[in-house]
Amino acid sequence: xxxxxxxxxxxxxxxxxxxxxxxxxxxxxxxxxxxxxxxxxxxxxxxxxxxxxxxxxxxxxxxxxxxxxxxxxxxxxxxxxxxxxxxxxxxxxxxxxxxxxxxxxxxxxxxxxxxxxxxxxxxxxxxxxxxxxxxxxxxxxxxxxxxxxxxxxxxxxxxxxxxxxxxxxxxxxxxxxxxxxxxxxxxxxxxxxxxxxxxxxxxxxxxxxxxxxxxxxxxxxxxxxxxxxxxxxxxx
Length: 236
Hints:
By secondary structure, the protein is of the alpha+beta class. Helix content is 52%, strand content 20%. The chain is built from five helices and eight strands. The chain is rod-shaped, with a radius of gyration of 56 Å. The protein starts with a helix and ends in a 7-residue tail after the last strand. This is DUF881 domain-containing protein.
């Protein structure tokens, strides 16, 4: 009985050892057949990635070069804009000066604030037989005109006749001739400019007004916010 039991145990042990050996052999063969995962990239893939990387680097270089060129051109444009702005201001001032010269020369119609001075012959004095002692004379008109220009008048006219740089005024008895055109008294001298300055210049103590009054000339002056003067015609 014991012999049979021992034989059974030996058979079981042999089977276990065979199974264990078979498992070890199978595991060994499986381990030898299994290839480890390689982290190395294949040559074609590596070459493509390297090519793309080089293209990206080159593109970045070109972009930087284009940006630098853009910044350079923008700086040039800004410099040109500054120069054009200076030239525009210069041209604007030249245009302003040209317009002023046209105004002084009587080439354009002008309008603005100013004063109107009226000179009239003095009242007849039977005790003064010399009529010239109370008539308005050309030099008295010139005094008023010169004072107005000195005070900053931009345009002056006598009875609507514009005064220019070479105007002449001649006295002929009770009338005066301005550039060949005769005007009887009263003589209205219009001037465009700052009314306050023009008024102060003519009415200063001992000034033009006082001198004319002492010469028996009737002097009056008014401010006007809408004085208009036509251009001088018949000249180039």
